[in-house]
Every structure is written in structure tokens, then in C-alpha cells.
Specification:
Blueprint lengths: L4 H25 L5 H28 L4 H28 L5 H23 L1
């Protein structure tokens, strides 16, 4: 699967956010207590990277569709991405070995990557 330049930059940004937040948690905890947070960040960041690929695939597929069908498909894909986000957040809230705040950092990495790539491309 070939990635566009924009998707590559988003994935790199998400991975950088994950590594920075895990490094900060290692410095903060200074023990093995950072593991639940890092598992949460990994889970949330994995979801964010999956969302990049799902969004890329949806855009490529919708370019060949008609107007009304394309709108329905994009809406369905958006709901799918929201359900996946809710599922991962629920997993972070219910599983004691996963830190919910780590999952939140990983999930928000998608939005941060969008803004970072958008503002970096304008300058």
C-alpha cells in the first residue's frame, strides 16, 4: 500500500508524539510504573495510525463515486472511525493494565498531527 506524502508526515508525527509522551512518562515515574501509560499511548497511537489509513482509503474510494453515494459512504466511514475511537477509549477505561490518559494522548495524536501537517505545509 503506497502512502501519500501527507499520510507519511501524519504517521511520523503520531509516532513522534507517542515517543515524546512515553519518554516524559519514563522521566516522571522513574520506575516500571510507566508501563500502563505506555501501553495506553501505544494503543491510542495505533488507532490514530489506523485512522490515517482508513481516511486515506475512504478519500481514494469516494473520488470515483457519485455525489449522494459518496456523501453516504464518507458519513459511514466517519461513524466507523468514531466507533473505533470509542472502543479503544472504553478498553482504556475498563482494563486496569492500560492507562486511560495514555489512550487519550494517543487518540489526540491524530488531531495534533492533522494541525501540525496543515500548518507546516502552509509555511
Amino acid at each position: 500500500m503506497e502512502m501519500s506524502n501527507l499520510a507519511k508526515r501524519m504517521v511520523v508525527t503520531i509516532i513522534a508524539i507517542a515517543f515524546i509522551s512515553i519518554f516524559i512518562s519514563v522521566v516522571y515515574y522513574r520506575s516500571w510504573g510507566f508501563l500502563p501509560f505506555s501501553i495506553g499511548v501505544t494503543l491510542g497511537s495505533g488507532l490514530s495510525i489506523l485512522k490515517v489509513f482508513l481516511l486515506k482509503r475512504a478519500i481514494e474510494k469516494v473520488l470515483g463515486m457519485e455525489g449522494k453515494m459518496a456523501g453516504s459512504y464518507i458519513s459511514l466511514q466517519h461513524i466507523l472511525r468514531l466507533l473505533l475511537t470509542g472502543l479503544v477509549l472504553l478498553l482504556g477505561a475498563l482494563v486496569p493494565q492500560v492507562n486511560l490518559w495514555g489512550v487519550v494522548v494517543g487518540v489526540f495524536a491524530f488531531q495534533i498531527a492533522i494541525y501540525t501537517v496543515r500548518f507546516a505545509s502552509k509555511s
